[in-house]
Amino acid sequence: MNKIVLAALAAGLTVSSCTGQKKASGTLQPNTLSAKEKAAGWQLLFDGKTLNGWHIYGKQNAEGSWKAADGSLQFDPKAKASGVSGGDLVSNDAYENFELEVEWKASPGVNSGIIFLVQDDKAKYPATYLTGPEMQVLDNIEAEDNKNTKHLAGALYDLIDAKSTSKPKPVGEWNLATIRLKDGNLELKLNGVTTARAKIGSPEWDQLVAGSKFSKWKDFAKFKSGHIALQDHGHDIWFRDIKIRKL
After folding, report:
1. Neighbour-count burial for 99-132, b at 16+ CB within 10 Å, e otherwise
2. Which DSSP letter does residue 212 get?
3. Which pTM was predicted?
4. 3-keto-alpha-glucoside-1,2-lyase/3-keto-2-hydroxy-glucal hydratase domain: which residues (predicted)?
5. How, if at all, do strands 98-106 and 237-246 pair?
6. Which structural domains are found in the chain, ordered by start?
């Protein structure tokens, strides 16, 4: 009888251990798609091993301070400090109506972001954020930008207050960011909690922009289609399990 109980306990512990290895979005292996996800139209934007499908903003390739290592896309500020070129990492493809999921892991004091609807024209737009709205990536505890509640993790950066909805996991743990955009209707979620809803181009949206730092940027969020960008803000940051589906 004791052996049976021990075997059952062992089995239970094994199941618990496997469950504990689940990634933030709920499947066992990062950078993979289940049969159900494939059937729903999801596509991986990161293969877990290379920078294929990405380039540095304003360049033709991804060579620089970004690297693929340990199953994640990583920005290395030490490499940038040593003279290796930095810059935001931009998807080769552009998207219009889509749902995007990205897992991110912060270092202490990190500030970064996931920018979308980016126009890939550095000659005309020196920075990705001049055209693309941003979902904030932040260490809410130690980051210098944590005083502004429109700049907290998961916020629609500088546009919508996230004081009551920003609930990132502790530094070193993976967070799940979701961006859903359909015919201008935008919804952001951080770890399953909605942090922002807005209708891009509506009178309410125009009011949000008018009250933000973007008010004088004539082409901010003016395009229906654009690229995804991962922000180089000079801090250690990790992204993985980046996937998208067209809506």
Report:
1. bbbbbbbbbebbbbbbbbbbbbebeebebbbbbb
2. S
3. 0.88
4. 41-245
5. antiparallel
6. 27-246 (2.60.120.560)
